[in-house]
Design a protein that fits this description.
Elements (H helix, E strand, L loop, with lengths): L3 H15 L3 H10 L13 H7 L2 H25 L3 H16 L12 H11 L1 H4 L1 H13 L2 H21 L6 H16 L1 H9 L16
């Protein structure tokens, strides 16, 4: 069991790193305005894609993924603790969703959650982009991809934990990530059911809806 201060250090680091609003910063650079004023009202890559374009969205994806990767790697290789790694990665998701540097108005946590998995279980993480591409290509709904692929990803984590390939604490991280992502997508789920959810590449010029 790692000392409590190691958990505290990585949790604080993860939260503060997660709070860095890459989408907000890059949105200001490209558009000279707050991207939260349009589209989904979030700072994630999907809204940046809708409002600013592919290049800034790609930069945001890289930044948001790194927010999950770094605390996971620090926990694994600096503190040598799966628990500290999982705690830091989970804190990064919270920071992304509720960023202290952006008025606690962030994104939905999908890319940062994936970054955590990438840092904790890189071989397992390889499957997730494949699943995401399949769902997006078939439906053109990024939100549908998020709400479907995230629990599937958690089941994959469950399988490797049961097979004793990865430590059980990583399953706790996966469960936390699923709960956060599904909760943050409740408005999207309602719009999907109502048939009003914008597909990828549309909806960036509308007022923010949340």
């Amino acid at each position: 069991m790692s000392p409590p201060f190691e958990y505290a250090v990585n949790i604080v680091f993860g939260y503060l790193l997660g709070s860095v609003p890459f989408g907000l910063v890059i949105g200001y650079i490209w558009l000279r305005r707050d991207i939260r004023e349009a589209g989904s009202g979030k700072t994630g890559a999907t809204n940046v894609l809708r409002t600013a374009g592919k290049i800034p969205a790609g930069l945001v994806v890289i930044g948001d993924i790194s927010k999950g990767v770094l605390p996971a790697l620090i926990g694994r290789f600096v503190f040598d603790s799966p628990g500290v790694a999982a705690a830091g990665a989970a804190a990064a998701i919270v920071g992304h969703v509720l960023p202290v540097f952006a008025g606690f108005r962030g994104g939905r946590g999908v890319a940062t959650s994936f970054g955590g998995v990438l840092g904790l279980m890189p071989l397992v993480a390889v499957a997730f982009p494949v699943l995401a591409v399949v769902v997006i290509a078939a439906t053109r709904y990024v939100s549908l991809m998020s709400v479907l692929v995230t629990p599937i990803a958690a089941l994959i984590v469950l399988a490797v934990v049961v097979a004793d390939v990865e430590p059980p604490v990583y399953l706790l991280y996966a469960a936390f990530a699923v709960a956060m992502i599904e909760y943050m997508h409740i408005p999207n789920i309602r719009r999907l059911l109502a048939g009003t959810e914008p597909r990828i590449g549309s909806g960036g010029d509308r007022p923010a809806t949340g």
